[in-house]
Structures are given as structure tokens and as C-alpha cells.
Write a structure and sequence with these properties.
Layout lengths: L7 E10 L2 E8 L11 E6 L3 E8 L3 E7 L4 E6 L3 E6 L2 E6 L7 E7 L2 E6 L4 E6 L2 E4 L3 H5 L7 E8 L2 E6 L3 E5 L4 E5 L6 E6 L5 E5 L4 E5 L2 E5 L10 E5 L2 E5 L4 E5 L3 E4 L1 H6 L5 E4 L4 E4 L4 E4 L4 E3 L4 E2 L1
């Protein structure tokens, strides 16, 4: 996607609609210079990318909230960027607990997760409340970081963690679901079919809801699943270099039409009629009939 990805790489992304996405870039020259973390945030349509700001920390995850009026980015060391219209504010979630790994909208709440089974919700400007399993479970599940979070509502939230753990919140209490694996779950989607899908290390998958999940292990280890998205009855799985669909009966099936157009994947999102795939150097859109690649884009 030229010229914006010629000397930069897309790291994290989220999607608001068929025609709008929100993503973070890093400059390739400094991408692995961990002493100088950075991110450039952009809003994007299929034809234009608009810069929203440069920040001197690494972005872990992004989400839309408030009907798309609010954009949220969280950083490794508990930073949070809130963008509402033309106003951008920098907040801190919890300076004593990091990393922060995931952020999502769950009903009306903005929720984030990360180290030591911590889950947070944003109550207002620079006001994040911790309400996760946290201290109650820390002795039993030491160093069990949460990697991804999502929810159907404020009273049904799912957070995926290490050691084959899925945590679900019923509006009052958290329940830990120990799955038949010790691998980490990295991604979660609360699908329109009424099931929660979870993906992770080596292609491990789980399907279920509340405290009942079934684990599906591929015949041979695969690459890690970094993003999941349901779209038109199918579950799409993004690895760093592959895009696949998944069902319990057939397992993983490559999406050759997408992989002929792109070599990098990693982030998935959808609008009402369009699925987006946003990889390190490639942005694709799928309308249910054909995949198209965004090759060139205007930059503002």
C-alpha cells in the first residue's frame, strides 16, 4: 500500500465500518529499536489515510467505542490514547501493572486487559477501574497475563490468557475456564452465531460460551493465530503470513484468493458488508464475493 507502507509497517488495527479503519504504524528503520518505542496513528478509508498523531510508545491494541465516535489505543506500559473528534488525550491505565495487551468495547464499556490477570474499564477521563480476577487468583495463576479481550455486553466479557485459560465475566464475578491445553490463547471474537471463538499458539482453537469451551488442536503445529473475525457465517483466522477459515469439522482451510494478493496479515475487522485484513505491508478488503487490495492511498 504505497506510499504509506514503503518505509513503515502496520502493527495494530481495528475496523469501524465498511469504509473506515484505525491503525498504528512504526518506522521500519526504528521498528526494533526498543529504547525508542513509537507509533503513528492513522484513520483510513479505502482511498485516504489521515494522520492522528505521533506517540513515543509502542501500541499494543486499538478499538473503536461510542458508536465509532471514540478511538482508543493502549500501550505496553499502560498508556492510553483517547481520540474524540479533534481532541486527543493521553491517559494512564495503571502505572504499576504492565504490560497492557488488549483493549475492546464491551457494550457501553471500554475494557482493557494485561499483566497478572488485570482487567480495567474506563469510567471517565483518566479514570480506569480494575475489576478483573486479579488478586483473588494471582497465587493460583502466577504471571498469567491476559492477551486479548472482547464481550457481548458489559455483563458478558471474555479475556484470554496463558496456560490454556479463558476467563469470563458475568457482570459480577469472573470464572476461569481451564481448557485442555497449556498453550496461550492470543485472540478472541464474540461472534454473531452466539459462540465465542478463541485462537492461540500453534493454531490452537476453542469454541464455546460462558464456562463451556471445546478445544480443537490441529494435526500438526501451525503458526500462531493473532486475530479472529466472523464474517458471513465463516470464522477467519489471521496469522502473520497466512489467512485461513476454520470450522470444527474441517479445521483450517487457506484463503488462496487473499494470499495471492497479500503476503502479510495479522489484523482482522469488519463492517456490515466488508471484511478487512490489515497486515504489516498489505491491506485487503472482501465484500463476500471478491478480494481487493489497496495498492495506493492518499496521505493527509
Amino acid at each position: 500500500m504505497k506510499p504509506i507502507l514503503e518505509n513503515t509497517s502496520l502493527t495494530r488495527a481495528t475496523v469501524h465500518s465498511d469504509d473506515e479503519a484505525f491503525f498504528a504504524l512504526v518506522v521500519d528503520e526504528f521498528a526494533h529499536d526498543f529504547e525508542n518505542p513509537h507509533a503513528v496513528l492513522y484513520s483510513m478509508s479505502p482511498s485516504t489515510a489521515s494522520e492522528l498523531g505521533y506517540f513515543d510508545f509502542a501500541v499494543s491494541d486499538l478499538t473503536y467505542a461510542n458508536g465509532g465516535k471514540t478511538r482508543v489505543a493502549v500501550g505496553h506500559y499502560a498508556e492510553a490514547i483517547i481520540i474524540e473528534g479533534t481532541t486527543t488525550t493521553l491517559e494512564t491505565i495503571n502505572p504499576n501493572e504492565w504490560p497492557i495487551r488488549g483493549v475492546s468495547e464491551a457494550g457501553r464499556d471500554i475494557v482493557a486487559c494485561g499483566a497478572n490477570l488485570r482487567v480495567y474499564r474506563r469510567l471517565g477521563p483518566d479514570n480506569w477501574e480494575e475489576f478483573g480476577p486479579g488478586d483473588n487468583m494471582s497465587d493460583e495463576f502466577q504471571n498469567n497475563h491476559l492477551e486479548s479481550i472482547g464481550g457481548y455486553s458489559e455483563s458478558e466479557i471474555y479475556a484470554t490468557g496463558r496456560d490454556g485459560m479463558i476467563w469470563w465475566y458475568d457482570g459480577a464475578h469472573w470464572t476461569g475456564v481451564q481448557c485442555a491445553t497449556n498453550l496461550a490463547f492470543l485472540s478472541v471474537v464474540c461472534a454473531e452465531d452466539g459462540y465465542v471463538y478463541v485462537g492461540g499458539i500453534n493454531g490452537i482453537m476453542a469454541k464455546g460460551r460462558r464456562d463451556e469451551f471445546v478445544v480443537y488442536t490441529p494435526p500438526a503445529p501451525l503458526r500462531d493465530i493473532w486475530a479472529l473475525q466472523d464474517f458471513r457465517g465463516a470464522i477467519y483466522c489471521a496469522m502473520t503470513r497466512a489467512l485461513l477459515t476454520w470450522t470444527p469439522d474441517e479445521g483450517f482451510v487457506p484463503v488462496p484468493e487473499a494470499m495471492l494478493l497479500a503476503k502479510t496479515f495479522y489484523n482482522l475487522g469488519k463492517g456490515k458488508e466488508v471484511l478487512w485484513s490489515l497486515g504489516e505491508k498489505d491491506v485487503l478488503r472482501f465484500d463476500g464475493a471478491a478480494w481487493t487490495r489497496i495498492d495506493r492511498i492518499n496521505v493527509e
